[in-house]
Write a structure and sequence with these properties.
Elements lengths: L1 H6 L1 H12 L9 E2 L5 E2 L2 H16 L7
Antiparallel strand pairs: 1-2
């Protein structure tokens, strides 16, 4: 494959694109904070929203 890249880069990248076709990265499920598996699109999006809100607005632990 490295040899193809050096001798025929166009063919190399065509091969890479052909191999990648149909392999889109997507998240099918995530776990809730309580450990429940979330599978619906709405639940997964909601959990990611919750996660990033926690990162953006961290709570300080009380002592």
């Amino acid at each position: 494959m490295e040899k193809d890249f050096q001798s025929a880069p166009k063919r190399f990248w065509q091969t890479i694109r052909r191999l990648r076709r149909g392999k889109r990265g997507s998240i099918q499920a995530v776990y809730s904070k309580g450990g429940t598996l979330l599978t619906s699109t709405e639940e997964v999006i909601g959990r990611w929203k919750e996660h990033f809100e926690e990162l953006l607005n961290p709570t300080t632990p009380s002592m």
